[in-house]
């Protein structure tokens, strides 16, 4: 059945492609939703996956259609998720760099920052050794990435990565959302 539709699509039959979309619409949606966990993102991704399937059909060689489209769907969803995480990390880095000591800090901001610093001081020795230096430097001593990189004799990117990993560790082990 699928092979007949695929051959018709390859020869330019748009109706055959619509039938294929109808047949696999829910399947593709659920495949990408399993990765993205967001209905709107999954709907958008499913549409993009069908465009990829359509443009990739000439390379399809009857190796199991459902497996083939699943691979396309899941890989696309993973790419979207990676880009989203990367954008979030970039936004966090920008926020941290600009909010390290913003002019005219609100009282609420200062109180929350002090609470976070106190929590970290108390629990610093619970952190794995490779995370302590950057966490203490950034959150408690309020050093910039550049200052930390110079002090630790590493590149700024290394400081960013170590801080990111330290935050991930804290979120996982302390169940704290204050370190995102």
Automatic annotation (TrEMBL):
Q: Which UniProt key words apply to this protein? A: Sigma factor, Transcription, Transcription regulation
Its ancestry begins with: Bacteria, Bacillati, Bacillota, Bacilli, Bacillales
InterPro entries, alphabetized: RNA_pol_sigma-70-like, RNA_pol_sigma-70_dom, RNA_pol_sigma70_r2, RNA_pol_sigma70_r4_t2, RNA_pol_sigma_r2, RNA_pol_sigma_r3/r4-like, WH-like_DNA-bd_sf
Q: What is this protein called?
A: RNA polymerase sigma factor SigW
Judging by the UniProt lineage, the source's domain of life is Bacteria
Transcription regulation: present as a keyword of the record?
yes
Similarity field: Belongs to the sigma-70 factor family. ECF subfamily.
**Gene that codes for this?**
sigW_3
Q: Which residues form the RNA polymerase sigma-70 region domain?
A: 20-86
UniProt xrefs under Pfam families? Sigma70_r2, Sigma70_r4_2
Where does the RNA polymerase sigma factor 70 region 4 type domain lie?
Answer: 119-170
């Amino acid at each position: 059945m699928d092979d007949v539709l695929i051959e018709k699509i390859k020869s330019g039959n748009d109706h055959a492609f619509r039938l294929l979309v109808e047949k696999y619409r829910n399947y593709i949606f659920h495949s990408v939703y399993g990765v993205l966990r967001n209905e709107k993102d999954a709907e958008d991704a499913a549409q993009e996956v069908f465009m990829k399937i359509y443009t990739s059909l000439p390379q399809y060689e009857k190796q199991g259609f459902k497996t083939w489209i699943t691979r396309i769907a899941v890989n696309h969803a993973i790419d979207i998720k990676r880009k989203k995480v990367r954008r979030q990390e970039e936004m966090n880095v920008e926020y941290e760099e600009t909010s390290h000591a913003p002019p005219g800090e609100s009282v609420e901001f200062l109180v929350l920052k002090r609470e976070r610093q106190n929590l970290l001081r108390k629990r610093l020795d619970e952190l794995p050794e490779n995370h302590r230096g950057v966490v203490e430097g950034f959150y408690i001593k309020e050093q910039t990435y550049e200052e930390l990189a110079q002090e630790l004799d590493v590149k700024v990117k290394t400081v960013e990565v170590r801080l990111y990993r330290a935050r991930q560790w804290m979120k996982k082990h302390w169940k704290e959302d204050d370190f995102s």
